[in-house]
Records
---
Amino acid sequence: MVFSSVTFLFYFLPLFFLVFYATRCSKWALAAFSIVFYAWGEPIFVVLLFASIAANYVLGLKIEQARASGRARPWVAAGIVLNLTPCCCSSTAAS
């Protein structure tokens, strides 16, 4: 789905705003609509998206645990590397 497509502008975006502002679960609405948006364009990337979410959650927990001892820097560096790796290694990035 392209941002300038009729489907996005007249169906997806208004429905998102309606759900986002009408519910108290706006974070969940944002997450759900983001996943639907990515799945619409290329469903295989949803697997990458879920893997990234899980890895970032675990890294966030590790960073929080390591902050007390002042050893969070390696976990932050690991998070940066982990999040940039798909961009550097994808075949479409070089095209």
---
Amino acid sequence: MTTHPYLRAFLAGSFVPTLILPLILTGFIVLRLVLQVPFPFERGIVFPMALVPLLWSLWNMLWLCSSRRTHLPISVHGALLPLLLMPAGALLATSMHILSLGARGVTWFGSVYVPYAWIVPVFLAALAVYYLMWKYVVGFLNRTLGIA
């Protein structure tokens, strides 16, 4: 199967976020409608739900295009994605007034305060999760589809 490798890379890349985002949506529905948490989560969840599968797909296509030149393992390539997503997400959230930057931390939705010291472990955990997801899930799908 050597036809349409970029289409197969697109589909393999979108697999993981397409499975995980409905779980996040379920959590949102439970928080907002069942527990009636008064935070306006919908402002911060709709845009990423539309954009993240596309970015994972394009990132996998970029790996397919560049892997012969860079010889970068897919796990390392996948772990680089949060280095782009988190700053871009923070910039977008700041511009949409979802996130406020302070001297010692950030404030989400005008009411949830997170110190900067907590952001570093979360960022490192995201790198680890992305590394593992790309190594085991996306890498497996790429091999199964014959593009790795």
---
Amino acid sequence: MFFEDFSLGMKFETAGRTVTEADIVNFAGISGDWNSIHVDEEFARRTRFGKRIAHGLLTLAIVSGLITRLRMTEDSLIAFYGIDRLRFTKPVFIGDTIRAIVEVEEKDDKGDYGVIGFKITAINQREEIVMVAKFKTAVRKRI
């Protein structure tokens, strides 16, 4: 889809993806974030969550990948422009399955290209919102 193809209020839903222990360990290795809340079951048991949680940035990365699988901007993408209002509202645990609702919230015409503001709502299998954000993506115009 190109800039002109998006309209305010347009919604998309991604497939789901289950978060695994391997995801958490691999992300810790790549990012260097070995915080005990993510990788130490005994430590995590004594926290308010009672068990290990996924990194917030891992959740963000998974959601980004799920959105990419929608292939909405595959032919028009210029660049990922940024993230606004990112919040992690509930923990994501090993075994949780997350998906995202993507809504076109804003369109900003920049002349020879445009920026689409997508409201992102990530939801787990219990229909709880685990993350919200606005993703901004620079896309080409058709003309």
---
Amino acid sequence: MMERVGHCGDGFEWKEQRYGRNMIVIPLMVSNFLIERELGYARGVMGANFWFMCETKRAVMEAGRKALDAIHQVRGVITPFDVCSAGSKLKQNFR
């Protein structure tokens, strides 16, 4: 996973043990993003982003919970990140 998403921290990411697992910690705008260093995978379709245009954090979380409730009604769909920040930048600084 370091090759795929680990370097999104532009060199500020680090590896550590959490929850008895090997994790990559990627600092983001609001909190840190944690992902296991090794994952399995299967064929499927992926990807979706939502832009929440809200005036308060509470409103964002309420809208996000409602979106997750609707998404979870679809069989086979997972939401590994649930509601999370995703600050955009022009490019990554791959070392």
